[in-house]
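Appendix B. Chain record.
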Amino acid sequence: ISKGPGNSKSAKSTVVPPGPPVYLDLVYIPNHSNSKNVNVEFFKRVRSSYYVVSGNDSAAEEPSRAVLDSLLEGKAQWESNMQVTLIPTHDSEVMREWYQETHEKQQDLNIMVLASSSTVVMQDESFPACKIEL
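Structure tokens predicted for this chain:
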């Protein structure tokens, strides 16, 4: 019996196992920033100057408050206080509440959240956008 991608049962989750950190310039937080795949260990290991936070589905808890809190906890354990920029793709209620409630801690950890109200308009469609310069 062959198992297709939809039939296979996976372990509890695909969180990042413990190990040495990996440094990147830009990271898209997986699975629309859902806490099933991202935890504190992810942010302790996957260290980036920029993290893109997508998700705009409160029913599916995306983005997850737990993921945003994990960023703070994981970043607090880095040896350096390098600046980190968080780039939300949507203006969600979860993001706004987290930003307001943890703003002081974000500043202490040198985390900046980009708030972009830029919109790209192309022919018959428009979508939110954010310019990233590395």
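Further analysis of this model is presented in Appendix C.
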